[in-house]
Amino acid sequence: MRWSGLWVCGGLVLWMQLAQAQPVPAVPQHPAVVATPPICRTQPDSAACAAQTRHVLNRRLNQLYRLELQKVMGTYTERRLGHAQNLWRRWANAECLFRWGPPSRGGADWQRHQDQCLSGMIRARIVQLAGFVHCAGATCPPP
């Protein structure tokens, strides 16, 4: 019986310490994680979900591209970045076209596969650009 009072007292002290604890800082979000479009909650495998996901990822990619562009504005790196981004877009489109064939195969199913393929490519590019935006020292592209 003597020990039960000790347990209660210890529990109260622990509870008070937890109540006064500072909130845990938020874990930084992975750069390629974007908000899920509302249609994807109800129809995750639909063509509309694939298209909206690609659209949201494109906006994130453009945001990171503009941030990196501001960082290198007025240098030769600005020109190289623009050239690399244009070539990357052409390559991503060509790669997905190669994987799923020409649009003549058509239909919503073909478009859904194209959008899903491009979303995967865009996610990878977002990670690359985020690395450039937040680089330091030797991890940055040369000027």
Write the topology of this structure.
Elements: H1 2-20, H2 38-42, H3 47-72, H4 76-100, H5 107-133
Helix pairs in contact: 3-4, 3-5, 4-5
Q: Uncertain regions: pLDDT < 50 for 5+ in a row?
A: 6-28
Largest sheet: none
Q: Supply the CATH architecture of one domain.
A: Up-down Bundle
State the CATH topology of one domain.
Substrate Binding Domain Of Dnak, Chain:A, Domain 2
The general outline is: globular
Q: What is the CATH class designation of one domain?
A: Mainly Alpha
Order of helices and strands: HHHHH
What is the beta-strand fraction? under 5%
Percent of residues in helices: over 70%
Q: How many distinct helices?
A: 5
Q: How many strand units?
A: 0
Distance between the termini: 74 Å
Mean pLDDT over the residues: 79
Radius of gyration: 24 Å
The assigned structural class equals: mainly alpha
Written overview of the protein:
The termini are far apart. The longest helix has 27 residues, at 107-133. With 143 residues, the protein is an all-alpha fold. The chain contains 5 helices and no strands. It is globular. The chain has a domain at 46-134: Substrate Binding Domain Of Dnak, Chain:A, Domain 2, CATH 1.20.1270.
